[in-house]
Amino acid sequence: MSDSTSRFAQPRVLLAATAATAALVTAGSILGGQAIRRRLRTRELKRQVEADLAGQEWADTTAIGKVNGIEGTEEGGMSPRAPMYAEAGADKVWAPGEYDEELIREQLSRNYTFLGEEGMRKVRDSYVVVVGCGGVGSWCALMLLRSGVSKILLIDFDLTTLSSLNRHAAATLEDVGTPKVEATRRFLKKIAPWAQIETRVGLWRKGTESEGWLEGADWVVDAIDNINTKIELLAHCYKSGLKVFSSMGAGAKCDPTRVQIADISNTYEDALARNVRIRLRRQGIHSGIPVVYSTEVPGEVKLLPLPDDEFERGKVNELGAFDDFRVRILPVLGPLPCIFGLHAATYLLMDLAGKPLEFPLPVKNRRKTYDRLDRDLVARETRLSDDVHKAKRNPMSQDDIAYIFEDLHQGRSTIPPYPVLTKPSLVRWCKDEPLSPWNCVVMSDKEADRHTSEVLQGEKTGAEVWGEETERIVQKRARDARAVWEWRS
């Protein structure tokens, strides 16, 4: 660079550096001022709360406290820093002006990084109806409120029971015997006093006035346990142009890594989802309803037993709804309904903010892999047949292929040390038995060719070629597969 060019460049560099420094100083001043104001407002809010709590008298009114005769003393384990209200009806009622609504809203819904200011405005202005206020619905409503939604309608006919306490987001012992929607409403109002939380204690039914409860909703959440009512609600919303998100079965599930969101047409292994798909198709609805479900295949979990007098009252050999709503009860691991509800709330929030999750990634999203496994298996079976010019028919569906590969063999080779294969193949294990999910294993191409040559076309057994440990694993997984098929049927 010449001296003249260098002389002209230096002032421009200095000017740019000065501008950048000034911009940083200005931004820092603005952000610093905002942070200081936020801290001052937070401090003032805490001061107001402490002042309101200072004059309150507290007592332990829980069932445990009453049984043991504990009156909130330190000997009874009650701490002044963790007080309880003297009676259930003495909850603090906040009046307008007693709290900084703007600050609380900001702290409750710190989603600006994801949703942006305009997105949060849309969330605040939205209206959501939650039908079914049990484990799934209550958690969904709670997180919608905490994330900024301030108009929610809760619909449920059911009462809070002791069994609700292992999964409900809001219910306490004091709520047992009261409507679930009221227990949820009281809890939500403690978090956001300004929120419009309405309730309907009743059952949603097609063709009744309850259809009007959904009018104006930006989203409807279906968290209903009853299959008939669920189908009616989903079909009504779909045909009426209402956005509806549905929760499938959280009962008898325990693996949180299998919970996912997908269109109803793209669900696997969920018995309730399968039933919903079939019944919606009868009404001409094949897709367009997002759901949260689990791909987990239930294990040894069974329906909880019913008392003898229930058998005397009528048919009880199925999981379903009755006129008096007697149902067989599936065991529920508390966190799973919560996880389902949080999935639903997250999906709705993104859509309400104008940033929808348009293509949620299914866990089983390897359709090309399943297609190739299917084609290779059919080609191998055809070569083993008497007529090589006529392709053998695979008795297993692509969903069966996915189950064999993903669930039964965990996407790995059946041969120890069970490596993850870059190009897996499916092959029949025992030549004297027909091809089935319990007579099919995963191998590499070379291993499959060897197995075909020495076992399916030769005189050796799988145990002789691959060892007793492999034989033991194959037989165990065959039993697992048979159990799943019995459960499906």
TrEMBL record:
Family annotation (InterPro entries): ThiF/MoeB/HesA, ThiF_NAD_FAD-bd, Ubiquitin-activating_enz
Membrane topology designation: Multi-pass membrane protein
The keyword Signal belongs to this UniProt entry's keyword annotation: no
Domain THIF-type NAD/FAD binding fold: start-end pairs: 109-376
A GO CC term attached to the entry: mitochondrial outer membrane
GO molecular function: ATP binding; tRNA threonylcarbamoyladenosine dehydratase; ubiquitin-like modifier activating enzyme activity
Location(s) in or outside the cell: Mitochondrion membrane; Mitochondrion outer membrane
Pfam family, one: ThiF
GO biological processes: cyclic threonylcarbamoyladenosine biosynthetic process
Entry keywords, A to Z: ATP-binding, Ligase, Membrane, Mitochondrion, Mitochondrion outer membrane, Nucleotide-binding, Transmembrane, Transmembrane helix
Biological role: Catalyzes the ATP-dependent dehydration of threonylcarbamoyladenosine at position 37 (t(6)A37) to form cyclic t(6)A37 (ct(6)A37) in tRNAs that read codons beginning with adenine.
Family label: Belongs to the HesA/MoeB/ThiF family.
Protein name: THIF-type NAD/FAD binding fold domain-containing protein
Organism of origin: Naganishia liquefaciens
Taxonomic lineage from the root: Eukaryota, Fungi, Dikarya, Basidiomycota, Agaricomycotina
